[in-house]
Specification:
heterodimer; A: mainly beta; 4-stranded mixed sheet; 2 helices; 11 strands; 12% helix; globular; B: alpha+beta; Porin; 8-stranded antiparallel barrel; 4-stranded antiparallel sheet; elongated
Chain lengths: 221, 245
């Protein structure tokens, strides 16, 4: 009988302890462990009317041994397209600081629900897709090899449509895959920005921050 | 498999006791209190892996259950009874919050996330079903199979701030939903006097769980709990009061 009473008392005491011990608020800040470096951006296009017409271009900025950025290499950042043609385009992002080279765009594809690419042909007669505050903001320079300010001239005849979509309920575009439609011959530039929009992606440019901002010269001939 | 094992075990015990039971079981009411131990997904503290998040893990910790039960016997060893009990289980610990924080930092590719958690699981459970009771000397052995309703009073809350986004933090709200559940258990009563007895119980409870509401989930990424399965084992002691002669 004494044992029964002792057990019962212990159970009640244990229960009371649980009641008063499990209502704590907790707050934890969890930092990221590592981020990939975006060193290389490759554009890979294929002419839909001529599969042998496969223009490519590459923008690259490698890092030194201390992870400081080296000068931008735009020697291959030249995209040459045929006039009045349609191309399917693919962006490949690489991290060449890793061995073997890490394909960042594969990771972006897995994280497409909060990434969005914007393509800005320059010069343009249309409102800018990618905002630029120059000359009010003297630090808002275009990425190499695009000059700041953009020299006056005819708008480059290039229309880009994003063709891939994420898995959000609204199925926003992503931009790893797109269609490039060229018009009349001319020259200009193409600015590409990748926006990182964690839980704020809504199809527009504004929310989030910029993970990538690169430029290419464009020749339509 | 687990369910089959429990039913097989219960039937075996039932058959064994029916052969040695001496008297007619007496109607009774009883009051119990004891530990409630989460099991299955409810007890898991696993966030999962990137794009394979565990959306069912409950992170529940051992708590307690307190309630009342009563039985009316319409046959010598078979009656119909019910139990009404309150159960409470601990929610996210600091370690859990850190795990969740790491998962959201990874899931959204942000530099950091700040996870704030509070609250616990609490519910009222109303169960009814058949009792099989077998008096042997001062002991009465009971087996019960019940089903009924779980009414949640609270589930743990979580807020996740991604980097410096203070305007649209992810929120997992506390739920006051209801759900169907079932319970199977066994125990015995020891008669201290003609009317008063000590009760010992072990019960397994299971429910598909209550609906969980979330706020500010603009983009599909990271762990998202929309329904929380619940299951636990109650081990309790109490007092029983026999009714009638």
């Amino acid at each position: 009988m004494m044992k029964f009473k002792k057990s019962l008392s212990m159970m009640i005491a244990g229960g009371a302890l649980v009641i008063f011990s499990c209502n704590k608020d907790e707050q934890v800040v969890a930092p990221t462990i590592a981020n990939e470096a975006l060193t290389t951006v490759q554009l890979q296009l294929t002419n839909t009317a001529d599969a042998s017409d496969k223009p490519t271009a590459q923008w690259e900025q490698l890092l030194d041994n201390n992870s400081n950025p080296l000068p931008v290499d735009v020697s291959q950042a030249n995209l040459t397209l045929k006039a009045n043609a349609t191309y399917t385009a693919k962006i490949v992002l690489l991290d060449k600081t890793q061995s073997p080279v890490f394909v960042v765009s594969d990771e972006i594809k897995e994280r497409a629900n909060y990434h969005l690419f914007f393509f800005q042909p320059l010069p343009t007669s249309q409102p800018l897709v990618i905002p630029n505050g120059y000359p009010d903001d003297q630090n808002d320079l275009y990425p190499e090899p695009i000059p700041t300010p953009i020299p006056a001239g005819n708008a480059v005849s290039l229309t880009i449509t994003l063709t891939d979509h994420d898995t959000n309920p609204q199925q926003y575009p992503v931009g790893l895959e797109s269609n490039f439609v060229s018009g009349a011959a001319g020259t200009g530039w193409l600015r590409i920005v990748m926006r990182h929009q964690p839980n704020v992606k809504n199809g527009t440019y504004a929310p989030g921050s910029t993970d990538l901002d690169v430029g290419f010269t464009v020749t339509i001939q | 498999m687990k369910t089959k094992f429990i039913i097989f075990g219960a039937l075996s015990v039932l058959i064994s006791f029916s052969s040695i039971a001496q008297d007619r079981a007496k109607n009774f009411i009883g009051f119990t209190l004891g530990a409630s131990i989460p099991t299955g997904d409810f007890a898991k503290a696993d966030v999962g892996t990137f794009n394979n998040w565990n959306n069912k893990a409950g992170f529940a910790n051992t708590g307690f259950a307190a309630g009342v039960e009563g039985v009316y016997y319409f046959l010598p060893h078979i009656g119909v009874g019910g139990t009404l009990y309150y159960a409470q289980h601990g929610g996210f610990s600091k370690t859990d919050a850190a795990k969740l924080g790491d998962s959201y930092t990874d899931a959204f590719g942000v530099d950091e996330s700040t996870v704030t958690t509070r609250g616990n699981y609490s519910s009222l459970n109303l169960m009814a079903g058949p009792y099989f009771s077998f008096p042997v000397n001062k002991f009465t052995f009971d087996i019960r199979l019940m089903c009924g309703l779980l009414k949640s009073f609270s589930t743990p809350e979580m807020t996740v701030q991604l980097e410096d986004n203070t305007e649209t933090p992810l929120k997992q709200n506390s739920s006051t939903g209801s759900a169907f559940g079932w319970q199977v258990g066994a125990g015995f009563r020891y008669a201290l006097t003609a009317k008063l007895g000590l009760m010992f119980r072990a019960d397994y409870f299971s429910s598909d769980g209550v609906k969980i509401e979330n706020e500010n989930r603009e983009n599909m990424a990271g762990r998202l709990v929309t329904k929380q399965p619940m299951s636990w084992v109650n081990t309790s002691v109490g007092l029983s009061f026999s009714l009638g002669k």
